[in-house]
Input
Amino acid sequence: MILLGELSLWVALLMATWSATVSFAGGRMSRSDLVASGERSMYASVAFVALSSIGLWTALITSDFSLRFVASYTSANLPTVYKFSAFWGGQAGSMLFWCLILSLYSALTLVANRRRNRELMPYVTGTLATILVFFLGTTAFSANPYARLDWIPPDGTGLNPQLQNPGMAFHPPNLYLGYVATSVPFAFAIAALVTRRLDAEWLAAVRRWSLVSWLFLTIGITMGMWWAYVELGWGGYWAWDPVENASLLPWLTGTAFLHSIMIQEKRGMLRKWNVTLVVATFLLSILGTFITRSGVIESVHSFAQSPVGSYFAAFLVTAIAVTGFLVATRLRDLEARAELESMVSREAAFLYNNVVLVGIAFSVLWGTLFPIISEAVRGSKITVGPPFFNTVNIPLGLLLLALTGVGPLIAWRRASVANLKRQFAVPVAGGLFLGTALFALGMRDGYALVSYTLAGFVFTTIGQEFVKGVNARRRMHDEPVPVAFVRLIARNRRRYGGYIVHFGVVVLFAAFAGLAFKKEYDLSLTPGASFSAVDPYNRTWTFTSQGVSRYEELNRQVTAVVLEAKRAGMAPTLIKSEKRQHVDSRGQPTFEPSTEVGILESLRQDVYLVLHGVSGDDRETAEIRITFNPLVWWVWYGGIIMALGGLIVMWPQATRGGARRRAEGGYVVVMQPSERRPAEAPEPPVEAGV
Amino acid sequence: MATRRQFVVALGGTVAAVAARAAHAQQGAEAPGATMEGDGYVPVRRLPRPAAAKRLTPLERDAVERNLACPCPCTLDVFTCRTSMPCGFSPRLHADVVQLADGGYSADEIMAAFEQAYGEKILMAPHKQGFNWVGWIAPFAAVGGGAFAAGALIRRWGRRAAERRATSPVPIQASDDELARLEAAIRSDDP
Output
C-alpha cells in the first residue's frame, strides 16, 4: 500500500500536469477533445492523490517507521486518533493533505459546471490543475512524505503533545478547507480575465465557493482559538502570532468580497475591486502558507525552515505577475456599468466596510512583516506583538462594528433624511441605553464601553430588521410569530443569514471586550493551604489545594494539582491542572513538558487554572496561576453563530419559474431569461446581508 | 533636473548606505558588555541600590514582564510564557526582573536594562520614534487614505449621476442594467 501510495503521488503529478497543459491548450484552440481530456485527467489526479493519501494514512496507522514522516510525527503508543491526525501534523503530510483537498474541490467544481460556464471551464480546469501541479511538485520534490530512513527505528519520536488534542483533529483541516477553497474563485477569476467574460457569470460561480472558504476559515479560526485557550495554557485565545495572522488575512479580504460582490450583482459596480479581492484572497492564503512553512518569520506554529519556502515564494511572485498582467490588460473590460450616487447609500456603507476590512488586513500584514522591513532598513530587530496589533486594530475593529450596524439601515442608491431618522432612531437609542447603563453600573474601561455601546446599536439594528420582516409576513400571510420568523429566514436566506452572521460578530465583540476585565493571580500552595481572590464581578473566591499527585497514563507521566474552588452561592467544585511529560513506548521522555489547564466554565466567566511547576523539598508545593476570564464562552458561541449564519446564506434556495424576484431596498429588479442577451447578461438581483 | 546617470548613482549610493548600515547594526546588535550564554540568554543583573526599599508591587512587576518579549519562538510576553510554555528563557528572564525589582529599580529602569542587553527586540512593541513611526502610522494612513479615496470617488460619481438626472426629461423607473441595454439597443439601430 505504501509503495502504491508513493507511486500514486508521482502519477497524480503527471496527470495534473497533463490536465493543466491540455486544458489551457483546449481553451485557446477551442478544441473540445483537449478540454475533455483535461477534465478527465483532473478526475484521474483526484483518484491518485486519494490513493497516495490512503497510503500515508496506512503507514501512520500501522506505525511504519521506515518512513521518515511516520517516525518523526508518531510513536507506537500514540492513540490511533492522533496517528490519523498526524497526517497534517508535519510539513510533508500537510502538503499532501492540501493536495487532497484541492483535487477534491477541483473535481467538485468540474462536476458542478458540467453544463454551465463552458467557455470558462477550460481555463478554470487549467488554473486549478496548475495550482495542483505546484503543490504536488513541491510535495514530491521537496517535502515527500514517502521519504525513507536509512534504518528503521524501534519507535518514532511521537506527536508534539500540544497537537494531541481533539481541537487539532479539526482545526487544521477546517483551515485548510478554507484556504484551499480560495483557489476555486481565483481559478474562475483567471478564466474570466483570460476570456474577457467579466460579466455576472463568473461572479455567480464564485460566490458560493467564496462562502465555502469563508465558512471553513471561520470555523477553523474559531477552533484554533479554542485549541489555543484550552491547550496552550496561557489564558488567552489570540496572541497575534504570525501564523494566526496569516489565517485572518484571507478571512478579512474574503469577507470584504462577500460584501462588495453584492454591489456588483445589484449595480454592476466595483468590478475591478472584486477581481482584486478574489485574487488577493487566494494570494494571501498562499502567503500565509509561505509564512508558516518558510521559517522567514518566527512563530510558535512554524514548521522547521525548509526549501518549501522558496517554492512558495516563487509561486507567489509568479501568481502576482500573471494576475497583475491579466488585470492590467483587461481594465477596460472591467469598467463599471453604473456609478454610486450618494455618500448616504447602502453601496457607500459597503464600500467603507470594504475599506475598513482591507485596512485591517493591511495592518495585520504590515505588523506581521514590519520586523523584517525594520531589520532591512535599520539593521536592528524589533518585536511587533499584541500591544501594536491591539493599538492599531481595536479602533479599526470598532469602526467595522459600527458599519455592521449602519449598512442595513441605509437604503440602496440614496437615503433621505426622513428614512435615516426612521431607521436609526431605535438602534441608536438601544446602543446609548446599553452604554449608559454599563457606565452607571461602574464600567470605566473606555474601549469596552464603546464596544458594548456599538454592540447594543448593532444588536438593535438586527432586531429591528427581524421585527419589521416578521411583522410584514404576519400582515401579509397572517402567520404566527414563530412561523413568520422561520419563513422570513427561509425565504430570504442571504439577507437574514447575513444578519445572523452580524449577530455572531456582535457576540464576538462583546466577548472580546470582556478581556479588558481579566484578572490573574500567581501563587504557591502547599497541600491544604488556601488563597482568596476577587473576580471581575467583585465576588470573593477561596481556592484550597488538595495536594499534588503523580501518576502514569498511556503515553505520559502526569503531575497534577487539584484545587477546591468555593464562593458564596456556589457548591464547592474541584479544578485540576496537569503538567505532562510525554514518553515513548520505552518510557523515554519525548518533547518538553506540556500543560493541561483546568477550566471551571460558565457563561459569565471561566476560572482558568494552570500548574506551572512544583517546588519545595518534598515537591508538594504547587506553583500555579489562576485567571478569571470573563465572557470567554461567548467567543465560541459567536463563532458558532457566525458559522450557522454562513450555512444559512450558503444553503441553496429554490427559485420558481426561472425568474428570480427579489424585492430589495425599496425597488424591485426582475429579469426574465428571454430578455437577456448573452454578451450583455445583466447582473442578477441580490439581497442584503452576506 | 538630474540626469538618468545621476539618478542611478544616487540610487546606488542610497542602497549601499542602507546595506552598510544594516551590516553595521547587525554586527553591533549585541549590547556592549553583555555576556550571551549559549542559547541566547543574556543575564540582566545590576547591583542592588544601597538601602533600597522595594519600589515595585507584584502587579507592577507583572506589568513589566508583560512588556518584555520572550526570546523563545512563542511570540508571547515573559509573564504569559513562563507559566504555559515549555520555555528555557522566560523563567530566567522572570528571575532577572524579580532581582532588579527587589534591588530597587523602577519599571523604566528595568525595561532600559533589558533593552540594553537584548536590543529593542526585547520590547513587545517598538518605541514610537524614528523609523518605527512608519510602522505605527501606516495602518491608519492606509485606512484614512482608502476612506478619503472612496469618498472622493463617490462624490465624483454622485456629480456625474446628478448631471445625468438633470439631462433626463422624465424620471425613469429602470435599473442601470436595463438602461445600459436600452442604450445598446438604440445604438445598434443607428444607421
Remarks:
- Chain B has two domains: 33-122, 132-189.
